[in-house]
Amino acid sequence: MAFSLNKVMLIGNLGQDAEHRFTTNNVSVTTFSLATTRNYKNNDGNWVPETTWHNVVAYGLSDFYKDALKKGKKFYIEGRISKRDYTDKEGVKRYITEIVADKFSGIIPLEGRDTSGESGDSGNQNIETSDAPHADSDDDLPF
After folding, report:
1. In percent, how much of the chain has pLDDT > 70?
2. Distance from C-alpha of 101 to C-alpha of 109, rounded to nearest angstrom
3. Domain harbouring 82, CATH code
4. Which pairing describes strands 93-101 and 107-109: parallel, antiparallel, or unpaired?
5. 8 Å CB contact between 131 and 49
């Protein structure tokens, strides 16, 4: 038997508040978009950010996620890639690729809980905000 693996691990920010609904079998379905960004050097030597949007779906999440999955919040998402198709209202066949998040270990908030009711990242004040990645130098090596 051939071995195969379909596993995705993402760290990014939510593009909008998650939408929660229920199937006809009373299973909760949560959907949201997640943005991941990478930086690369273009031909001119300038750093260019490239953002990729991922559609994420999760089944059977607890009520905790109804409050936690808000626009702009940073999350770790683990799951699998799934492709499906459907026919829209005009009869056009549409295709969608999405990440199906693992129920128990697949959605982890990466920001502390905010008790003031305001959005913010109080736990990450020491993160570099430069657009260019940090260039390691030999002067920083401990040996």
Report:
1. 77
2. 13
3. 2.40.50.140
4. unpaired
5. yes
pTM of the prediction?
0.72
Residue written as tokens 């990242």? 121
Q: Give the span between the Cα atoms of 96 and 82, in whole angstroms.
A: 8
State how far the Cα of 86 lies from the Cα of 92, in Å rounded to an integer: 8
- What are the pLDDT digits (tens) for 17-46? 999 999 999 999 999 999 999 999 999 999
Per the domain annotation, does 122 fall within a domain? no
Answer whether 38's CB lies under 8 Å from 49's CB: yes
CB under 8 Å to 100, separation ≥6 — which residues? 56, 57, 58, 59, 79, 80, 81, 82
- The amino acid sitting at 69 is L
Provide the pLDDT for residue 48: 95
The per-residue pLDDT for range 87-125, each reduced to its tens digit, is 999 999 999 999 999 877 789 999 876 544 454 444 443
For the chain, the domain total comes to 1
